[in-house]
Protein: Beta-galactosidase
Organism: Clostridium fallax
Amino acid sequence: MISNNKTLINKNWLFKDSEQAEFKRVMIPHTNKEVPYNYFDEKIYQFTSYYKKELFINDSDKRIFLNFEGVMTAFKLFVNDKLVGEYRGGYIPHFIEITNFTIRNKKNTLLLEVDSREREDIPPFGYVIDYLTFGGIYRDVYLYELDQCFIENILYDYEVLEFDNLKGKIKITPRVLINNNSDEKRYCIEFCINERTFKQEVDVLKGKKWYELNPINLENIDLWDINSPSLYNCNMKLILNEDIRDCNNITVGFRDLKIDDTGLYLNGRKVKITGLNRHQSFPYVGYAMPKRVQIKDADILKDDLAVNLVRTSHYPQSPYFLQRCDEIGLLVLEEIPGWQNISEDKQWRIQVLNDVEGMIMRDYNHPSIVTWGVRINESMDDDELYSATNKLARIIDKNRKTCGVRYIENSNLLEDIYTVNDFIHDGGDIILRTREEVTGLEKPVPYLVTEFCGHIFPTKKFDQEERLIEHALRHGRVQSYAKEHDEYMGAIGWCAFDYNTHYDFGSGDRICYHGVMDMFRIPKYAAHIYKSQKDPKVEPVIEPLTWWSRGERDKGIVFPIYVCTNCDEVEVILGDNNIGRFSRTEENIDEKLKGLKYPPIKIDLLNGDWGSKWSEAEFIGYLDEKPIVSKKFCENPIVCDLDVQLDDRKLNGTEFDATRVVVKVVDQVGNVLPFSTGCINVETEGDIDVIGPKCISLIGGSIGFWIKTLGTFKDNTAKIKITSSFGINKEIKISLK
Ligand code: GAL
């Protein structure tokens, strides 16, 4: 499914939510049921629905395939009323040949019967799970028109032979899966990389078979790294008698990766992992968000949370998301679908192996992926199952290490990396358990903490300031501790974004408030701990963890204030009083945060009495003795404006495209008013619409929503009109192409 001979067929699908209902036109990615923000019954999307499409198939002798990149959870495909097959697994692609079902030079009818129930024969189901899986055709669909012989997949194996300063000499040995239905045998494969072309004759057998090409040495290759994610376009052609029969382009990055019991080394440099877990869900539409929104999540993790690794908890995620991780240098731990439960059902266990294979075959060439998670998240030991998943992963991928996330101690280590969810830190003195304690092994093994915090300290964006601070500090403490101790490869916090969940988890409203950002990707204080670890030359950060008010904290205290910053010093001005500059002296840093690269600077001044005069404040960040960033707080904040930020103002009007809008009610100096409960109404003009409700109340002074294009491009401009209960209205122009 890598051929360039493909067409995106996301438009003009018909959908109905029951056999009796009428079809209506929809675009893919599609959710079978839009859900409310919270307090909904998750059963409302667990049903069988129908997707239909008329597809003109040209007159040719091509083989015809469809690729469904993500359909939750299983489906039957009918072409011209004939059953092609049944496909299981909502997180891996299904590449299906329909050649013999099609009629040429005619419209053909595709019909999918999509089963979005939590079926016991398909992971992650069988018992309870702490996330929702939603339903529908929620990732792209492609039509492939291919020659009788084509390249179905390529695994770009390579070795970095030597390197210096991110320049390397590499040996590439592509493994090519050729699917041949023709009687022709003598094909030529032409491989182009970095403006060099290599040719090789291959005797292709009938059927589907892997071929290892001759190794190719390349010099002076820019290695892929976190701060310089160099990618190369690999172009491969399948040629018969000078006629190109198939061709594809895959971007590949080359890196020297070593993982041992002392840590992870990327291109010779030790990288301590600072990561967050990501669920791929969004308000209202669940999983069904298009390319731009997937890309944005990766950017948020890299730019706004400054992490160096994301774990795709608990399933393979969008190809667009992973591609973006490659482009921006964000490491990935990708894992198979599942949650705690292991089923005895035969079909279920077969599906686990299908998921391992589907995940690795799809994502093999992503340089960002550093390890495969081949164990059901937090399941008990099952040596039979996990020996099989590890074996399969190692057969396909001889280079990447495997891991498997558990929470139990003394678990049988069948993988290369012992990955563990360690929720021990509850605000007290213990931050993480030791490697030896958890693994039960005397010999050191590669050891990575894959979750912490989460349900131990659920925190809402609109919780009391002190809770938000403690939430931030807990993330800081664990990251700090992992950094200070060599036995940890690093730590991955639970989690990046709040997410919808089942009634038996979360706060009862179908949300787990475990994110360092909310479901709209709006930061809580904990996000500032992460962001402030950024290189100040890339972006100086100053985020004092306070709403700056006299009586929000218990007993009316205001200090200490932790200032999350990557600056050297913070100058504090209260009213007309310049209090002075604070640097990271021993008394200004919490002992338990000192392992961080930029521990928050703790400013502990005398707390004025309840009833003492209140004033404005300013916190100024200094880098190399120069003021470079500042944050002001008002003495008497009042509603002043609606701050509206769009991720993008240019959208693709011919497809389903979407972008996020964040609205904040702000005071005189632009700070969010965190307890504001106003509401907004959103109207649109032109070929766009709002995803979810149009009448939205602010949550903790801010809210996000997404607008989408309708694929019915007529006019270049569209408008978003926001009216608010504050009497402040905004109009924003969007351009469409
Ligand atoms: C873990 C689990 C996650 C999430 C988290 C909440 O046990 O792996 O999926 O439920 O708890 O803290």
Summary: Residues 130, 313-314, 377-378, 421, 451, 454-455, 494, 514 surround beta-D-galactopyranose (CB under 6 Å). DSSP finds seven helices and 49 strands in the chain.
